[in-house]
Each structure stands twice: as structure tokens, then as C-alpha cells.
Design brief:
This protein is α/β, with parallel strands linked by helices. It has two domains: 2-144, Rossmann fold, CATH 3.40.50.620; 153-270, Rossmann fold, CATH 3.40.50. Helices cover 39% and strands 23% of the residues. A ten-stranded mixed β-sheet has the order 4-2-1-6-7-12-11-8-9-10, with helices on both faces. Strand 8, helix 6 and strand 9 (183-187) form a beta-alpha-beta unit. It is elongated and about 60 Å long. It comes from Flavisolibacter ginsengisoli DSM 18119.
């Protein structure tokens, strides 16, 4: 049984994120811990020190938000009970210490975020916040759109880096119930038609993904790739932390807008 940390912007409830928990729980029971974060000035969120003893407490913007947060907590609890999901809830939303959320990720298998609901209420760029989230989180992250098809296939992105391999392994370890679905390893290796460390990589993924195929990404043809991936309905994309490789650079600027918002694909990201 894996432990999923589900983080909500306290005044907004992500039905898409909860649906993912519900569907995964049907395949393999999970424990979901919900953290209802206060409505704050997210643009300054990460400037608060996490080194202060006990963490820096961040106050609510509006006291009337409390009623809505309580309503969302009750909604979450009712949904968990209705769907037989084991759950825990953070209720100290009057002043949530970011250091505590970071510590929670240390003891969770996965941090799950609802893409549009969590990010669009912050007034900042998704890519900027995603980089900060990656720095903060001590477990893999899954970003889920509000409207999507539950994954029936997996896109594994591989650029030869340690980070990419780590993310693929983490996904396989965390979601063995999804690895039997059709999978496509998309790889890039500038100036070379061969997959980086081809023999070793094939040995690894063939053990975890029995229905795996391989696709050589032509980095120069960005528009072609955007069109191609937009047709991958019902897929989940797996990424390592962004690096400087050709594949990483291709996704770096458009990752949030093209994949999370436009393409409506769940995205799994892991880093050491």
C-alpha cells in the first residue's frame, strides 16, 4: 500500500486529482493524506524560510475562506468513505508551515497535485512554480489535469541522463498496476541514431514494461512532436527533473502549458 500526499489549495477542490486517487485505489489500495493549504500570496510562498524552528507560519488572506476550507475537507472525507479509501487530513490550515509540507513529502511515496486548480489560483507561471516544487518535494510528483482520460498507456521520456532513468524506475516501482499497459519510450540522443546505453536501457524497461516500444525523437522537428503527442489520448507522461539535454530543453519551456493544460495528460516527475 502506497502513501499519497494530496495537496489542495484550501479553497479549491481538485476533482481531477481525487478521481486519480479513486481509480488507483480500485487497482491497489492506498493511504491518502490530504493537506489543505491556506489561500495565501503564492507568489511569495517560497521566499519564506524553511530553516526556522517549527517553520514559518503563513496566515490566511481572508478569514471567510475558513468556511470553504472546512466544506472541502468534509467533501474529501465523504468521498473517501464512499469509495473505501483509507485517509488522513491536515486540519491546521489557519497557519500552514511550508516546512511541514516538505517534511510530509519525505514520508510519502507520491505528491499529487491537481494541475489547473492548484496552479491557476496562484497568479504565477506554472513552470516557475514547478521548478520550486521539484526543489522542495522529497518524493516524486504527479500533476493531474481536471479533465483527462485515466491512463491506458505510458510515455517514458529518456535522454540518457541519470535523472531520466531514475524517474522511469520510480514510476515502475510506484505504479506496477499501470506498467502492463502499452508503453512507449521516447528517446533523444543528439547526433546519434542509437538510444543512449541502448542495451542496458532495454534490459531495464523490458523487465517492468512488458508492452514497451521505442521511438526516436527528432529534436529539430518540434512541431511534429507536438502534433504527435497531442494524439496520445489516455496516456501518462514520465519525466526526470529538467536538465540540459536536447529532450529536456524541448520540454522545458512548454512543459506546463502544452502538456498539463493543452494536452490534458497526467505527468509524473521524479528527481533525487
Amino acid at each position: 500500500m502506497k502513501k499519497i500526499l494530496l495537496a489542495f489549495d484550501g479553497t479549491n477542490f481538485s476533482e481531477g486529482a481525487f478521481e486519480f486517487v479513486m481509480r488507483i485505489n480500485e487497482l491497489q489500495p492506498v493511504l491518502v493524506t490530504a493537506a489543505f493549504m491556506p489561500q495565501v500570496d503564492y507568489a511569495n510562498l517560497w521566499s519564506y524560510s524553511v530553516g526556522v524552528a517549527g517553520g514559518m507560519v503563513i496566515p490566511l488572506v481572508e478569514d471567510e475562506d475558513t468556511t470553504l476550507v472546512q466544506k472541502n475537507i468534509r467533501h474529501f472525507e465523504e468521498l473517501c468513505q464512499l469509495n473505501n479509501i483509507k485517509f488522513r487530513v491536515h486540519k491546521n490550515f489557519y497557519g500552514f508551515a511550508m516546512a511541514e509540507l516538505r517534511k510530509e513529502t519525505r514520508f510519502a511515496d507520491l505528491l499529487l497535485l491537481g494541475g489547473e486548480v492548484f496552479y491557476n489560483n496562484m497568479g504565477i507561471e506554472m513552470n516557475d512554480y514547478m521548478r520550486e516544487t521539484l526543489k522542495m518535494a522529497e518524493c516524486p510528483i504527479l500533476i493531474v489535469p481536471e479533465h483527462y482520460d485515466f491512463p491506458q498507456s505510458t510515455l517514458l521520456t529518456y535522454d540518457g541522463t541519470e535523472s531520466a532513468v531514475y524517474a522511469i524506475k520510480q514510476f515502475a516501482y510506484l505504479f506496477p498496476e499501470l506498467t502492463s499497459a502499452p508503453s512507449l519510450l521516447v528517446y533523444s540522443n543528439s547526433g546519434d541514431e542509437l538510444m543512449p546505453d541502448k542495451e542496458n536501457m532495454e534490459e531495464l524497461v523490458n523487465q517492468h514494461f512488458p508492452n514497451i516500444e521505442f521511438f526516436k525523437l527528432k529534436v529539430a522537428h518540434r512541431k511534429f512532436f507536438d502534433d504527435w503527442i497531442s494524439e496520445k489520448k489516455g496516456a501518462l507522461a514520465v519525466f526526470g527533473a529538467f536538465g540540459r539535454s536536447a529532450l529536456s530543453q524541448m520540454f522545458h519551456k512548454s512543459f506546463a502549458s502544452d502538456i498539463i493544460q493543452s494536452l490534458k495528460l497526467p505527468v509524473f516527475i521524479a528527481h533525487k
